[in-house]
Design goal:
Layout (H helix, E strand, L loop, with lengths): L6 H4 L18 E5 L17 E5 L3 H7 L2 H6 L2 H9 E3 L13 H16 L2 E7 L6 E7 L19 E4 L6 E4 L4 H17 L6 H9 E4 L5 H9 L3 H14 L6 E5 L6 E5 L12
Antiparallel strand pairs: 1-2, 2-3, 4-5, 6-7, 7-8, 9-10
Helix pairs in contact: 2-4, 6-7
Length: about 280
């Protein structure tokens, strides 16, 4: 996942920058490797380095986590990560709105490890009994999804032929800025059509760049609204296959039956507040 050195687990102290150029004290930092390795970012984008430099969390950042206003707005994690990201590892400022979602997930997990250690205690549903069970997960065991560099020679532009309609689709993977726009659109649509949620189609409309070479947004929107379910499923599977990310699963062992199954890591309130 990253090159984090965790004092709690290794006994090695992190590097500390003693003073900045304006002679103010600096906090310990670590370099985090991004799942995308920077391959999906344009030349000139600081994220092309494939790394970010994170500072260790302090009480000031904990104030962000407890801000009820930010929690109600649903932006508390983004505000926290923005405060913790120092640079791209080479001294350049990181354009947070251009972060791929998988890379942002890796930064979030790394920030949690640096703040509170790698052991994460959570509660999940036993898939064999449907009962609640407490588990302990070592976040250092999380690995990046394997990438095939040949898939990313054209950067964040991909092509796919839909199996049913045989339409040639060009699409991109979403960045944080795209997600913000999508959330706003979905909220607006819910006010107009309370009985129907449009998350799936809205996301696809933001991801698809062209259909058989047609780039007009209104025509793409109409195509998505009438896309065959078989084509939609195939496209979403393809998107999932090529999306750089952390493998956010773990091997769950049932205390009741002794059986094991790989399940998603539950992201509860204790992720950033251990013991809560």
């Amino acid at each position: 996942m990253s090159k984090i050195v965790d004092p709690e687990y290794t006994g090695i102290e992190p590097k500390v920058k003693q003073k900045s150029e304006n002679n103010t004290p600096q906090f310990p930092t670590e370099i985090v490797d991004l799942p995308s390795k920077g391959l999906l970012y344009d030349e000139g984008n600081p994220l092309r380095s494939g790394k970010v430099e994170l500072k260790y969390m302090t009480a000031r950042e904990e104030d962000i986590l407890t801000s009820q206003n930010l929690i109600k707005q649903g932006v508390v994690i983004d505000k926290l990560l923005k405060a913790l990201i120092v640079s791209n590892g080479e001294g350049e400022e990181v354009p947070y709105h251009k972060l791929l979602i998988g890379d942002k997930n890796a930064i979030m997990v790394s920030a949690r490890i640096l703040a509170y250690g790698a052991e994460y205690e959570a509660e999940c549903i036993d898939p064999f009994t449907n009962d609640k069970q407490k588990v302990k997960i070592n976040l250092l065991n999380l690995k990046d999804k394997e990438l095939n560099a040949d898939e990313y020679k054209t950067g964040n532009r991909f092509t796919f032929t839909l199996p049913a309609s045989k339409k040639d689709i060009e699409f991109k993977l979403l960045q944080h800025g795209d997600e913000v726009k999508i959330d706003l659109e979905i909220k607006s649509l819910k006010k107009l059509r309370k009985e129907v949620t449009s998350e799936l189609t809205t996301r696809l409309k933001h991801m698809i760049l062209s259909v058989d070479g047609e780039t007009d947004k209104s025509k793409i929107s109409g195509f998505v609204d009438n896309m065959l379910s078989r084509d939609s499923l195939a496209l979403r599977k393809r998107i999932q296959e090529i999306t750089p990310d952390l493998d956010m699963t773990f091997d769950f062992i049932s205390e009741a039956t002794g059986e094991s199954q790989t399940i998603p890591i539950p992201l509860g309130v204790s992720f950033f507040w251990p013991g809560v």
